[in-house]
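note to self — DONT lose this again. spent like an hour looking for the file last time. sequence + predicted structure for the chain T wanted, 122 res
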Amino acid sequence: QVQVVESGGGLVQAGGSLRLSCAASGRTFSNTRMGWFRQAPGKEREFGAVISDSGAFAYYTDSVKDRFTIARDNAKKTVTLQMNYLKPEDTAVYYCNGAKIVDRSWSGLDSWGQGTQVTVSS
């Protein structure tokens, strides 16, 4: 089990940037793929980005590709999401979690934390 605490959300204007942080704990963190997911009001939670256990590989959903960057520091047990060129459509609660493939899509591995709110104004 990997437990996480997300932070770094806030209110920004379209075109702005934010960096989200995820502080993780658990013995298996360094051997676990980690991902960022988000849930907009009235919508289902969706996958955003995933990073391999070593940090050597990352994959992004098309809607955030070339705008967001996921990274990790296994020594510090942290995962970050650098978000640039933000759009109002990015408004959502962002969650960090271990990542697994379910029905050909990335999903959360463990229980969900509280997430951090990102609001992008137009």
